[in-house]
UniProtKB/TrEMBL annotation:
It holds the Pfam family GIY-YIG. The lineage of its organism: Bacteria, Pseudomonadati, Bacteroidota, Cytophagia, Cytophagales. InterPro entries: GIY-YIG_endonuc (IPR000305), GIY-YIG_endonuc_sf (IPR035901), GIY-YIG_UvrC_Cho (IPR047296), RuvA_2-like (IPR010994), UVR_dom_sf (IPR036876), UvrABC_protein_C (IPR050066), UvrC (IPR004791), UvrC_RNase_H_dom (IPR001162). Keywords: Cytoplasm, DNA damage, DNA excision, DNA repair, Excision nuclease, SOS response. Belongs to the UvrC family. Interacts with UvrB in an incision complex. The keyword DNA repair applies. This is UvrABC system protein C. It comes from Chryseosolibacter indicus.
Amino acid sequence: MTTLKETILRLPDSPGIYRFYNEENELIYVGKAKNIKKRVSSYFNKSTGVNRKTLRLVSEIRNIEFTVADSEFDALLLENNFIKQNQPRYNILLKDDKTFPYICILNERFPRIIYTRKYNPEVGEYFGPYSSVVAMKNVLDLIRKLYSIRTCSLMLSEQNVEQQKFKVCLEYHIGNCKGPCIGAHNEATYKEEIEQARNILKGDISIVYQYFRKHMQEAALNMEFEKAQRYKEKLDTLERFQTKSLVVNRALTDIDVLTINSTNEYAYVNYLQIKEGSIINSKTVEVKKKQDESDEDILSFTAQQIRVGDNKTIFSNVPVTVLEDDVENVIPKIGDKRKLVILSEKNALELKKNKEIQREGKKSKQFEVLSILQKDLRLPNLPLVIECFDNSNFQGTNPVASMVRFANGKPDKKNYRQFNIKTVEGPNDFASMKEIVGRRYKRILEEAGQLPDLILIDGGKGQLSSACEALKELDLYGKVPIAGIAKKLEEIYYPEDPFPLHVSKKSPGLMLLQFVRDEAHRFAITFHRQKRSKATIKTEIEELKGIGKQTTDKLLKHFKSVKKIKEASFEELETLIGKQKAEIIKGLDPVKTDTISEIQTDIH
């Protein structure tokens, strides 16, 4: 059974929301955070200065779930959506006092819309509480820009208005109020505007948008262009308020998002439910895979279990077979739809990381090494994935580079990469480093692949600066930790830091970095020797009169080495390249051939 302490240690250092559940698995609190791990940890670290309601909340927590977001602002919107949808009782209890403001539509003949810190249901209809005063005032300002809602506190009874007891104020003269106090604003029209404002406060902005759009088009058809322009200005105001966000985006509505990330034994499925352009539900589950069970089968089965509501569109990263005929499955490739799928994939990946760490155990040696490395290098996240780059050339010839990838502190050899330098001439390690780092992460971004937790550069300040230039061009600089490791003194260099970091030579974290660096160097040298060997052999064979590049490539592809070419029978050669060329090859000087073989043997 995983303890709360273990769960907190594995929370991500990312913006998003966290959810607390009690013993009955009831959602009791939703909160937002710029850094989920730090924010949740603060609940359990504080022993003084905490009110009784918060202490009671902490005492009831039995499980913690989270949803990562792309930004702190998205986390704020996501929190608001979840609170509206689920109404967790501690969100009400903790905010049911003068600390947090509400917006209230007062019970009056011409209702005012005000903000207040006192909650009294008899006074009017309340919306909130708002955890951000700025967000609350932005909503109130929007309503006042869109509608002519009075701000005075006059008693506008029918008798008082008929007896003309009041005079219009400055708000009337500057156009913010239409003068209900003198009977200039029809009560039915005023109530219609209040109803539109109520939709905004409920979060139904799409209804308001359609209302303004319809009236703008009607005014334009009736040649009332000034009126149409006023509605257009209101639409523009509404657009500016509704910040482009994946969490609240009117263009993405009534959709389910399902993504899967799997290993050989387990699959991790994330589900996002989107209604009225807002993410209102999120769930990530782990599924034990059966033998030869595909991701498509798992996601299709899990979709039936995890989906709620009646959304008719499913976005996913693999095909989903749905039972309902009227449900459409789409695999987005570009744009905001694709970004929404990527957000879902991030949440599936976070659960995958958590579960893998959990299975390996907190006392796992490799986990301890990674934790030490995280502390040594002051990294924001556990360096579960490290990618290291190195260059290799001989006097500027055959320049190549390599990238090795370590996952969970172990070589991930199937994801090693070799690079032929394409844009750099001569021995220029700095330019070569910029090229390969740029090529690697440009492709990762294009394919929406997983970025590493640490980029390691084999070299000092020069190579590191070149790699940073490549990251800046891709807008990744500062988003992925990067460091250089110098060979002589084993110093660690950070971008824009003139002084190196000295890590204890006995630190397991430094030893891991050395292993990663040495592996990258070995892989680069091996690739360079292979390339140089092939080039040398080709040069020696091509020097023979009558043997060209095409024939050389054909021989090496078939026989793999000069030694095997020499040992081949005349008949084999004749079948492959013809009688005339076979005679030339068999007449090859034995001394020269042996020399080539020796070169090849020495290189390998």
